[in-house]
């Protein structure tokens, strides 16, 4: 998982960036607003910010001596337009929604094209901290962009529904069955997939509601899941996130500054065998993984660490060093037993143990209450990104399926695979090269 930045706590009296859907007819005086005045304490945190362009166009600035700076969390903005869609390499966000849609009966390519146009414009506006184009619900009023991202993808079934079968990538073929799967088909796959993330729960819900309303009569919700991560600034310093088992999760994630990052995560512009419309895109594998927390929490600390192969306290390999130290897979203890057990999760998932298979994991935790037996319905909304799922997710999952010690404590309950095209250029909508190609 990508490490999170640690912005300072929100300042009281944060000014509104989102206007009312029905603005006053009174003229708004023009005033120049500096980046320092707008972002306040954000500059000291090292965040990559870009809120000025989205905010200054429609939020009048108070006089400098009366201005209350926008908090760093609210000011953080992801860009809608770009080479890749936002929400892939964006730092983990505090709140997330995953939602799949099926096209309505009778809807086809024409309706899908209009829908992606609407969704793209809504995403562009909301990611800039603006109100929705029409019928804004005001849910996110007073908040800045809050690192909102809205990411769109296409499922295997989308292409038959729209007469675009010849444009369907081979990499989108259905995932193989795994013996540990207990999949609910009603909560798996879908024609269209939307991932929403933000560092404010109301901003994230606002986007979810806007996307669902935009679907209109063209598509209906197939399934929807809600997730969360630790809030930015909750730890004393940036660190890899923890999952609901209390384990640091994501230590060996590929990093954007790795020399081979792009070739592992994104589809190249040529030479990949994928259709041209997927250039600079990626493939998302989505799995709802329930954690059997009551069983897990009965284990001793040592047994938990043996299952994972890492220290629970700091994520370091059991063979020593810090979190990022290379584990010594051959090291044995005084009784000549492997220090990192042969079926430890960390051993099985290492890229050098899987032919170099790599994927960028970017999950959310979830808790949906308790089941009929009083057990927590909680776990991980696993989302991973790769240039080719047959070389990324599949070989690793097959190996985990055969002997991962963690398998006794988790259950894969839903699954989906989606082709996520590259980002939209200025004046384009997401998926335009597919739908108009």
UniProtKB/TrEMBL annotation:
Q: Which UniProt keywords apply?
A: Heme, Iron, Lyase, Metal-binding, Oxidoreductase, Peroxidase, Signal
Comp. bias intervals (Pro residues): 9-26
UniProt key word Chloroplast: no
Please state every residue range assigned to the domain named Dyp-type peroxidase C-terminal: 240-424
Cofactor (UniProt): heme b
Is the keyword RNA-binding assigned to this protein? no
Q: Which InterPro entries match?
A: Dimeric_a/b-barrel, Dyp_perox_C, Dyp_perox_N, Dyp_peroxidase, EfeB/EfeN, TAT_signal
One term under GO cellular component = cytosol
Q: Where in the cell is it found?
A: Cell envelope
Q: Which GO terms describe its molecular function?
A: ferrochelatase activity; heme binding; metal ion binding; peroxidase activity
Q: Which residues form the Dyp-type peroxidase N-terminal domain?
A: 85-229
Cite the EC number.
1.11.1.-
Give the span(s) annotated as Disordered: 1-32
How is the cofactor bound, as the UniProt entry phrases it? Answer: Binds 1 heme b (iron(II)-protoporphyrin IX) group non-covalently per subunit.
| A biological process term (GO) from this entry | iron import into cell
Q: Catalytic activity, per the record?
A: heme b + 2 H(+) = protoporphyrin IX + Fe(2+)
On the tree of life, the source organism's domain of life is Bacteria
Q: Which Pfam families match?
A: Dyp_perox_C, Dyp_perox_N
Q: What does this protein do?
A: Involved in the recovery of exogenous heme iron. Extracts iron from heme while preserving the protoporphyrin ring intact.
Q: Which PANTHER family match?
A: DEFERROCHELATASE, DEFERROCHELATASE/PEROXIDASE
Q: Which NCBIfam families match?
A: Dyp_perox_fam, tat_substr_1
Could you say which protein family the record assigns here? Belongs to the DyP-type peroxidase family.
Q: What is this protein called?
A: Deferrochelatase
Natural source organism: Streptomyces phyllanthi
